[in-house]
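Entry 14: structure prediction run for Zinc finger TRAF-type-containing protein 1. Input pasted below.
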Amino acid sequence: MRRHRLPRAVIGGGPDGPGGRGWGGRPRWRRRRWRGEAAAAAMMSGAEDREAGGGPAAPSAPSAALPGPAAAAGGPGEAGGAEEAGSLLGGARPHGEAGADPDAPPKKRLRAAGTGAAGPEGAAGSVKLEERLYSVLCCTVCLDLPKASVYQCTNGHLMCAGCFIHLLADARLKEEQATCPNCRCEISKSLCCRNLAVEKAVSELPSECGFCMQQFPRSLLERHQKEECQDRVTQCKYKRIGCPWQGPYHELTVHEAECTHPTKTGNELMEILDEMDQTRKKEMQLYNSIFSLLSFEKIGYTEVQFRPYRTDDFITRLYYETPRLTVLNQTWVLKARVNDSERNPNLSCKRTLSFQLILKSKINSPMECSFLLLEGPYDDVKIHPVIYHFVFSNENNETDYMALPIVDSVECNKLLAAKNINLRLFIFQIQK
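Run finished. Output tokens:
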């Protein structure tokens, strides 16, 4: 019959107290004897179960209870019995560990010891190194691997170039100081720097080709998709005469051999060429207009710098304005606004800039001008040139707000993230 554990005060000390009793209140020699008898009984019951099921014969108790070379010298059954006895006798945790019960039956102690066999180290070892690096080198904003430049704050948190510019643009729109989304430290183009080590590490990580699903280093993936991949999407060489076929590159040769467009008649080809000529005329019209403007007698240009300001409304709005500038002996001012003075432009992903040209000088007669804005000499913003026309007078000296021909919202964020917007203004005066 199992005895209950007695309090320490009743026992009268620790393991070395009176009577040589341990923490459980039972003499040590009796406890060791009880453990040996329980182990032998468990082995005998296991042997009977194996015999009933047709298994190998059970080993004798003395040979099974003796670990070491003596047990190893026996047959396979004796070795198995020795291993079982060792697990039963030594499977329990030491007495001082949490959760160990020295008086518990051997089977219970065996189950408790087996629960900790599979730990987090085995699960972590099965994860690939690339997958662990993805979570370490990813951008803290979009949680994706950077594709180009990588910036870091003063505490080392990583941001891709697109998210970094977007954070600076949002802070400019909200009239706040841009902060790191992780540690809330201040970030700016002067405080943050590029992390070249992370950029090189990311370029060597494997990435999957979107066409053939093979793994390539990120530094070689773009070249593979454009030039080497046999499954990349390509077009027929007779596209210029109307062939709409698109398909994988390895099927291009077969299609071109069967394509019917080379056998078209001259009348059919003339219709296609007429459509191509119309498209080309529209593209060349802008360049021809610029060349004709360059032949004018009065031409002026200057570098303009838009500076950010805030309106005096209850809800302030961001706008840009240039200092007064002199072109063609006249004084001018440029103004710009974001999303046509939308109430909360920071909540919109699509962002645009529109500008207005104002004549500040007094003139004696109406002044007809053509003007356009281009990117400045130190900016990498992509702007499509568009020519605007307006007739200035003393009564009508302001143009309407016209959209700045920026390629997309990413380029607009680059302008908003900068401290100032630097562009180049050309004005052509039309003589009558």
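Notes: Residues 9-24, 55-100, 107-120, 122-126 have pLDDT under 50 and may be disordered. Will compare against the previous run tomorrow.
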